[in-house]
Amino acid sequence: MAQESRPTLATVAAHAKVSRQTVSNVLNSPEVVLPDTRERVLRAIAELDYRPNVVARQLRTRRSYVLGLRMPPTTDGISGQVLDRFLHALTDEAQRAGLRVMLFTADDDEAEIREYENLRATTGIDGFVLTATHEGDPRTRWLADHDVPFVSFGRPWDDAGTGDGTSHEHAWVDIDGRAGTRAATRHLLDAGHRHIAFLGWPEGSGVGDDRHAGWYEALADAGLAGDAVVHRTMDDGVAQGAAAANRALVRDDVTALVCVSDSIALGALAAVRELATSRPDRAPVAVTGFDDTPVAGAVDLTSVAQPVGDVAARAVELLRAQIDGRPDAVNRQALIEPYLVVRGTTRAPR
Amino acid sequence: MAQESRPTLATVAAHAKVSRQTVSNVLNSPEVVLPDTRERVLRAIAELDYRPNVVARQLRTRRSYVLGLRMPPTTDGISGQVLDRFLHALTDEAQRAGLRVMLFTADDDEAEIREYENLRATTGIDGFVLTATHEGDPRTRWLADHDVPFVSFGRPWDDAGTGDGTSHEHAWVDIDGRAGTRAATRHLLDAGHRHIAFLGWPEGSGVGDDRHAGWYEALADAGLAGDAVVHRTMDDGVAQGAAAANRALVRDDVTALVCVSDSIALGALAAVRELATSRPDRAPVAVTGFDDTPVAGAVDLTSVAQPVGDVAARAVELLRAQIDGRPDAVNRQALIEPYLVVRGTTRAPR
DNA sequence: GTGAAAGCGCTAACAC
DNA sequence: GTGTTAGCGCTTTCAC
Questions:
Q1: pLDDT tens readout for residues A51-102
Q2: In a 3-state reduction of DSSP, which class is residue A142?
Q3: A1-46 belongs to which homologous superfamily?
Q4: Closest CA of chain A from B156, distance in Å
Q5: pTM, 2 dp
Q6: Nucleotide showing the shortest C1' distance to residue A59 CA
Q7: Which nucleotide's C1' sits nearest to the alpha carbon of A13?
């Protein structure tokens, strides 16, 4: 009812006794119109509760201020939660910056690219936010080749120099996973642990290797590299975490486990708990996770938290700069430091 | 680069040697144009890789086929996860039905309403999807009053008859929580449990009371109403779940706990585990949760799963019907039956 | 500084 | 059945 017939520029112009153009100017280049007229126009706008029709504007300017985001595939795992939190934050930050987020789905990278093409040809989407970049990701190349503004949550994982040599730079924001596990490991070292195992994913995943590196670095810095510590890899999942923990805990001197994810850590925790009942004599084993998912809080697990809010803010910034055509906005990136949330699983037992 | 200058209707028309209108007809009312011409036009469309500009169409038709959804506030709890899964499913279903989902944020219901107004006046959003309806929800009233198509995930919780008497109907889809806890309780009864406590939220939340009712019903059906069973209420959360479980387990005959949420169940599980070590003589206690969040799978917790995919499909259907102006689409609702996922916490111990 | 004219790409209405 | 005309609401260009 209320929207039966909204006022247009013409309505406002008539009301303020100026031309449509002047009203448009008041809105888009206020400095160009005399304070007096401007005042009058603004009053008319307020009185009529006029709001510009963004669709019409979009048709004219070819700018929508809408971002496209492929709904991250439902991992249904525990860690998939991080992307959901990111989406929350992104929506927030985008809105603050005058942008909107539009969702779409696609089954794989190729379908996603087809959808980019479709959305660009069809709607006026101004740019895209990618999540979960991985090695050999074809999406960034396509977007770069087609001059589409975009930013990825996740750095490019391809080895520079190897491959087809056509590597390209692009705007990205990522969490410094290495710094995260480094912090976790240092925390354990500070607490007196000397034999700290790492439970990780199989080698080859950029994210996993990055987190692994942080653990190794911290140990190396402490002069504990290599000799005394073990590390196992497997797929993500609670059961796998338990299995890996059991393998690591075969050695009696291992007193701490740095895990590549909260899922793994959850499994490790179960293994540790079992060990505590079966072998009460053994020293208590500390555990850290990664992602600080709600479960971590629930089971009192120390974990590395990803400040997705910061990631989202930077992502929006980088994207907005590209949309506005600000130069040198394309090749900018931000690596954001995660922080450790210390909980019960790494506190000394009473 | 590729999008430098996309073909328009006119391009296609020239190419196929017909008028723009005919091309438009081929796209929107194919049956009205001669097969021959249609063929020619379609060929031209394919050759030029023409795709209609939805913005222009939208300006003309006043239809965007875009749905607005307020990003559910980050509950950061374990159960908040359900809404995220719903969002995934909704995006999927919407896309399948030719609709898109656009996100926005708002701090509270009033802000959300302001955003409705803004989005309606400004962009061409066709309808909204609400989540987490609650008692005294002002949003549905506003939308209904303004003839805006919408559907809510969550039924209206206001008591019919009480209040201001201006109750209104609207399209909604919801999970039958009562059926869920009923199924969980029956499952436990079938397994031989006779004293089954319910761990719930404080009275007064529609969702919580609904789930409570299912548990009670199942017990009543079994002739076990009232006398032998306890039930406690508190806020949602793992710690609260543990506390409530401890209170319930004071009675030695209680052998099963039906929980209003996975968070509560997680706490209950911890309490049960503790009890098992401190009092090995006591009968093992079964536990069920609600929502079937990833944690449930991780800790092998039997839980009631919400088929959010079905919810999303029905929601899109109801919304699409309203947008298309199909009559009697406004007052339609769907109550969807959840299902029980049986896991270790309700299987007889070896 | 302000106004008039043109046009973004499309579809609704009406000729033919 | 097909083509022509008009216009959705806005901004860009160019007179004045």
A1: 999 999 999 999 999 999 999 877 667 878 899 999 999 999 999 999 999 9
A2: helix
A3: lambda repressor-like DNA-binding domains (1.10.260.40)
A4: 23
A5: 0.93
A6: C8
A7: C3
